[in-house]
């Protein structure tokens, strides 16, 4: 699914409309996520009616004010508006955490043709691998609300990081509060042992050298006597 937007430009629906155009940025925001492609236009009455429902749905899954662990979900608005002014008007009503394809980007039309979108509003739901979970989830979102995401999550076999936290925590080698003191003590004792060993080794080395010198002198004496 990330491949769908590599080498493309996505825009954040924030005040500055920051652009995401590097592989690292695109991967970071889309990888291992369920992706919703929202095809709509400002002049469509059904799109206007669906907009607050979608905003509430997305907000309750992504906004930390409503949920402790935001879900692995991304929403991209693909405008089918006839003018940039219409698109901007619609974006003002959309959640500020969504992404969108710029109006001047021809990739908007390519996405529409790729997924054969003929009606609006359409919410195309994709698995992280890019395969289609739902060709149009508008009715399901209106009817079932947040339960939709649970179904998508199970179908996509998506593993959330929050679920993995306990497993990672269980594998940690936990230490007590006095551990640093004990480690310092053992380190000090190890250093003392090393110093003692070094002194013994030095003494042994000196004694060995003296013995060698005595043996050499003895050998010289024997050679002289011969």
Topology:
Elements: E1 10-12, E2 19-20, H1 23-30, E3 34-40, H2 45-62, E4 73-79, H3 84-93, E5 99-100, H4 107-114, E6 122-126, E7 132-134, H5 138-144, H6 147-156, H7 161-170, H8 179-225
Parallel strand pairs: 3-4, 4-5
Antiparallel strand pairs: 1-2, 1-5, 3-6, 6-7
**Number of beta strands:** 7
Termini separation: 94 Å
Q: CATH H level of the largest domain: which superfamily?
A: Glutaredoxin
- pLDDT averaged residue by residue: 80
Helix content: 40-55%
The number of helical elements comes to: 8
Rg (C-alpha, Å) = 35 Å
For the report, how would you describe the main beta sheet? Answer: 7 strands, mixed
The tally of domains stands at 2
CATH arch. level architecture of the largest domain: 3-Layer(aba) Sandwich
The fraction of residues in strands falls at 5-15%
The global form is globular
What's the CATH class of the largest domain, please? Alpha Beta
Low-confidence stretches: 162-187
* Main sheet: strand order: 2-1-5-4-3-6-7
CATH topology of the largest domain: Glutaredoxin
Q: Return the structural class.
A: alpha/beta
Domain Thioredoxin-like fold: 32-132
GO cellular component, one term: mitochondrion
Biased composition (Acidic residues): 208-218
InterPro entries: RdCVF (IPR029520), Thioredoxin-like_fold (IPR012336), Thioredoxin-like_sf (IPR036249)
Question: What distinguishing features does this structure have?
Answer:
226 residues; 7 strands; alpha/beta; seven-stranded mixed sheet
């Amino acid at each position: 699914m990330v491949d769908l937007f590599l080498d493309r430009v996505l825009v954040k629906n924030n005040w500055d409309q920051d652009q995401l155009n590097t592989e690292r940025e695109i991967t970071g925001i889309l990888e291992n996520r369920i992706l919703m492609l929202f095809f709509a236009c400002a002049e469509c009455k059904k799109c206007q009616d669906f907009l607050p429902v979608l905003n509430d749905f997305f907000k309750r899954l992504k906004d930390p004010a409503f949920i402790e662990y935001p879900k692995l979900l991304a929403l991209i608005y693909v405008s089918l508006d006839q003018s940039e002014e219409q698109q901007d008007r619609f974006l003002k009503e959309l959640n500020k955490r969504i992404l969108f394809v710029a109006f001047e980007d021809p990739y908007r039309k390519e996405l529409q043709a790729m997924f054969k979108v003929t009606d609006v509003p359409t919410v195309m739901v994709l698995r992280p691998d890019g395969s289609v979970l739902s060709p149009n989830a508008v009715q399901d979102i209106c009817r079932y609300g947040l339960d939709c995401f649970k179904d998508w999550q199970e179908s996509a076999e998506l593993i959330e990081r929050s679920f993995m936290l306990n497993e990672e925590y269980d594998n940690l080698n936990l230490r007590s509060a006095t551990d640093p003191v004990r480690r310092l003590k053992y380190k000090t004792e190890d250093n003392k042992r090393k110093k003692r060993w070094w002194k013994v080794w030095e003494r042994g080395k000196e004694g060995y050298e003296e013995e060698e010198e005595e043996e050499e002198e003895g050998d010289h004496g024997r050679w002289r006597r011969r």
